[in-house]
Structure formats: C-alpha cells, structure tokens
Amino acid sequence: RTIVLATRNAKKVPEMRAILAEAGLDVEVVGLDRYPDAPEVPETEPTFSGNALLKARAIARHTGLPAVADDSGLQVDELNGMPGVLSARWSGSFGDRSGDRDAANLRLVLDQLADTPAERRGARFVSAAAIVLPSGEERAVEGTVAGHVITAPRGGNGFGYDPIFVPDGETRTIAELTAEEKNAISHRGVAFRRLARVLRELL
Ligand code: ITT
Q: What class of enzyme is it (predicted)?
C-alpha cells in the first residue's frame, strides 16, 4: 500500500520516512512532491492534533490515498507554553519554510528568555501525528520530549529550534545529535512509532 506524507517541510520528510521504515511497516511512503497541485492548508486549530488532522484530511481528499501529517512545535514553560502551535510563524514569517525563518524564530525565543535563569528554562517539543484514510477513518497520537532552552545556538543538524534545545539526560543540543540519535528520542520519533502501531491495525 501507498501512504502520502502531508508535509511541505523538506526536513520532516526523511525523519517521518526513517521512523516509519524502522517500524517495519510494509508500505510505500511518498511525499507531496508527487502532488504539485495539493492544497496549502491553513493551520487554524488551537491544538497540534487538530492541525495535523486538518493537513492529513486535505491530502487524503486530494490524493485518494491514506495521508499522514505531523503538526509540531516547542512549548516553553516561561512563555506559558508558547510558541506552541504558533512555532512555525513565531517571528511573523507566514508560509516561509527557509532556514531564515527557523533562525528568526529561535532568535526571538532566545531574546524572550534573555533574563530567565537556567532553572526556569524548561521546555518540551510536541508532535501530533495524524492518519486519515480515504474512507474518512482518522486517528491522531502525540509524542513529546522534555528538556531546556540554552542561551546560544549550537550544532548544525536537524532544523527549527533544534540548536537551542537540550533534551533531558543529554548535554548536547538536538542539532548536535545524529539523525538516528534524534529520531530515537524526539517528539516526532515517539509520535510516529505510536502512529506505526495504529497503521498496522488500520491498513
Ligand atoms: P508542514 O506544516 O508542511 O508539515 P511546517 O514546518 O510548517 O511544515 P509545523 O506547522 O508543524 O510544520 O511547524 C512546526 C514548527 O515547529 C516549525 O517552526 C519547526 O521548525 C518547529 N519544529 C517542529 N519539529 C521540530 C524539530 O524536530 N526540531 C526543531 N524544531 C521543530
């Protein structure tokens, strides 16, 4: 069977692919590059799972195939859980998926925490993973990874807020981990391993 990954974030695609492949699912995973006319979906829901379902529904409808989507972000304790579902557009750059967007977003979080001491810099990454079947059947699951925000970016791997986030039990930022190390502990790793179990039942 074929499933479509409903994301336009080129950095998420290999993560989602690798985690699903490792889960040993017998499926062919295709990206949205096969569907240049796929609709752009505004993320209007207040929750990660709500937005992941919006993206997966639109792509399942467009392609007639089972669609899998991720909605994710960083929740910072000191910012009352923000940027949260607003993580992709925290510095105001709508629709922009470049490294410039990521750099501006993480810079803003660092500036907002400039006066926050180490013991109050707790945060977590959250990923909601959704599957929508052409029949209309749908499920969403979540994964999180807890850690803290450091004061200056480190590392060149990964994407987004990875250079400023150190997971609990680590001294390195996620951007200093290999792709395999990241997938083993990340919010998306946890969520997509859960989703793989659901997919095994549904498909
Ligand atoms: P799609 O909606 O097309 O999947 P997107 O990049 O806009 O792509 P989201 O709306 O889910 O995805 O926004 C996720 C935001 O959270 C974005 O700012 C990411 O940089 C950040 N983020 C998500 N996962 C991350 C990770 O593993 N490491 C660092 N930052 C992450």
A: hydrolase
